[in-house]
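Researcher: Excuse me, tokens okay?
***
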Amino acid sequence: MRYVQGDEEDLPLAEHSVDVIFCPLGLHWINNLPGAVAQCRRALKPDGLLLSALLGGDSLQELRISCALAEQELEGGVASRISPLAHVRDAGNILTMAAMNIPSVDMDDVVVRYSHPAKLITHLRAMGETNATKTSRRPIRRTTALRAAELYHEHFGDEDGMVPATFQIVYLTGWSPHGSHQQPARRGSATVSFEDLEKAISEFEHEDGPTNSADGDTPSSSNAAGISEGSTGAGQGSPGDVDKSDTGHGDKSLGGSSAGVIPR
């Protein structure tokens, strides 16, 4: 194993030279994200894997909204205080544009709670994740920042006085093309139409009818499918969510990575 240090937008990797590329929470800093993913595709060997994670567009939405409301109220306009981030709907398009096979996109919301919005700012600055966009206006005024903190508590504060900060993690997975991958059938090669399929399903349901249990009740479709009613999605109590009290140093479960998205 060898390590190579380089710029994500100018990868120092030869074509078809690596088996796997990992990009953990770094792609949100790249100016040309489609170009960077395309470079990863060229560097991968056939059947090579790209596994990456970046912060999505809904990250720190509470902070974004609070700053916008405060600036509109006190300064009569809104500035870009949060770095631009890719949305989930764009992630799949980026993989497709880079000609990756079997593209997959997943998402997880991690919610961290702080005793005060200033604690969130301190946490993000400690990780070197300030807003570095060239179009950013002058640093936010103190009065505006204080008003933003008040609005943060008013609109998003919990009953115990804590305030949440949402980090949306978007996972991208794609494979370099290889002959062993599944291929779509040739257009027009289908022998059964959707109308025929719908008709066959309708006839089967009419002949078979609902299956009743011993006590006469019809089992629910979720139980019949073996789906647990206790399962939850991202942002709804999933195992990846974080919800802990602030210790004065922010939450360390993010592994030292976060969004470059805070006001300066």
